[in-house]
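Predicting holo structure, iron/sulfur cluster bound.
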Amino acid sequence: MQVYLAQPRGFCAGVVRAIEIVERALEKHGPPVYVRHEIVHNKYVVESLKAKGAVFVEDLSEVPPRAVTVFSAHGVARTVEDEAAARGLPVLNATCPLVTKVHNQGKRYMSRGRTLVLIGHSGHPEVEGTMGQVPGPVHLVQNVTDVAALPLPLDTPMAYITQTTLSVDDTKDIISALEARFTDLQGPDIRDICYATQNRQSAVRDLGKLVDVILVVGAANSSNSNRLREIGTEAGVASYLIADGSELDPVWLKDAKAVGITAGASAPEVLVDDVIQALRRIGPVEVAVVPGREENIEFRLPAELVAG
Ligand code: SF4
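Done. Tokens:
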């Protein structure tokens, strides 16, 4: 069987940085280090860090006094920052710099008196963090129907920002609906969209042209992994989201000549290898990487964790 690997796939720079912050914090301070929310949405990553001494909590009230605390890559609301400060917790902030950029854009629009719309998924931790960072009401829209339902006059000075794990393609219909409805609308530069989300989605579309089945390696609660699976399906290719090789169902591959594999931004390459191993147990496998965009983006670590 021919296996094609999407390029790029898997870890983005924000995820690499977030994991490294927890690892370096463990080295520097020793375990336990407390992490608010899954550092990134991947069970394998979370379990590996747990084994090294990270303790994952959903609420800061679970963190003991003075314990080193890491905020996850998704970002947090100001109330969470304030609570950590009030309790004197030493905090390392692993919020992805691209998420922080969205927070800052939102604050800028608001300071200019604009009414803010956030395009994103209700309940996602990044969305909760962003809504909680901007000082004022934020209208969350998830689809074009929500745009039509916004209780605002058409000439309201408006601005929008977007959840980073939505690509240009995901948001374009909603942005068009906002543009059609409001006469004074501003939005961020299209180049500000997260490069990793866009690149992984473009790569899965390219993959879809070559294969009969797409396997997306990622967690069920990972928004960008789910989206990759949806894009595969939209391209007319049977697409499945799997955490690792143990979830591979041979029935999916019954009539497949070529299988494509990609991975969400929070899924490590070791899990892609695990899926390839599972395919090898079914039959002989030839692996090739589809030519795609090279990524060489790196985000700096917090100064206190940089050696030297
Ligand atoms: S997907 Fe984009 S915004 Fe999210 S952590 Fe990765 S680089 Fe940052």
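The chain is about 40% helix and 20% strand.
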